[in-house]
Amino acid sequence: MKWNGLIANYSRFLPVSENTPDVSLHEGHTPLLFLENLSNLLDIELHVKVEGANPTGSFKDRGMALAVAKAKEEGSNTIVCASTGNTSASAAAYAARAGMKCVVVIPDGKIAQGKLAQAVMYGADVYSIKGNFDEALQLVKKLSEELPITLVNSLNPYRIEGQKTAAFEVCDQLGKAPDVLALPVGNAGNITAYWKGFKEYNQEFQTGLPEMRGFEAEGAAAIVKDSIIPDPETIATAIRIGNPTSWKQAVRATEESKGKIDFVTDEEMIKAYQLLARREGIFAEPASSASLAGIIKHLQQKELEKGKRVVAVLTGNGLKDPVTATEHANVKVQSLADYRQLAASFEGVSV
Ligand code: F0G
């Protein structure tokens, strides 16, 4: 099958017409992998949706493909966003593709190196502020209200429309919706988008509905604690957000689906991050591993029954954050003294 991106493939579910320009980087169509080792370990049927396989390495490309195409269609020539890293990388790439200007505002020192490298490489104007994501978002919201520029954070409804296609793909790949869909929650756009996607596909193709289980980082768990967190903190910088935009929609998604929003600790995320890499060969970024960490927590707390078919969304690629990876790999690079030392590594290996 020839894949030309999600707008071409799912156009009948999207607000597009022949006037919508093609700015696709052939995003979407990401692998849904069955994890045999972890399924055996956890006694569930565990699949992961590998969104790090998108063109800029995160799920953001789904929403950005549509948001940028629509901005261009509507005559805009500049897009703006606040970001913990992935949105800015994706916005900058699609702006470059569309021949548009891109301006991004990020929290100083709190975005992974690879994401920053992407934004500058794609040619965005990048500003950092001393504050956090929530403060950056206030700034760009104000700017987009006063100037003729397009905001491409998930307040932009086209972002949610594009991102809902991930739910379509899960149903297509699995034959129907899973029992449980687990994903990390930051600004809460993605959980809103998946739920919308599952409902639309179910209406059209009777694919069923999953329980939606979203996981915030403990230090940024505004929805779980039902209170804005003024100084969110977590190792998972992607979801270091204390006042999620789609808060209400996320709560509605979990209520309607009989799911739950919970939190996971940094320690639990790091453990899941290591398990994915070492047991399954999948390198996802720390925030992404909140989905698996949450599933493990719910199994331990008996909030999830054995044998369930679970899809955990891995939202971003581990390569974006090499510093966190090398700090938590538990393997150190050793400097090699001589041939004998190297040969000693192979002790017990026979020919
Ligand atoms: N996982 C990753 C890797 C992310 O980058 C984000 C959000 C999320 C999960 C949470 O998704 O916000 O829809 O609930 N990153 C945004 C950004 C905030 O600026 O890149 P959400």
Automatic annotation (TrEMBL):
Matching Gene3D superfamilies: 3.40.50.1100
SUPFAM superfamilies: Tryptophan synthase beta subunit-like PLP-dependent enzymes
Location of the Rhodanese domain: 79-145
UniProt source species: Sutcliffiella tianshenii
Recorded superkingdom: Bacteria
PROSITE patterns: DEHYDRATASE_SER_THR, RHODANESE_3
Protein name, per record: Threonine synthase
Gene Ontology MF term list: threonine synthase activity
Catalytic activity: O-phospho-L-homoserine + H2O = L-threonine + phosphate
Family membership noted in the UniProt record: Belongs to the threonine synthase family.
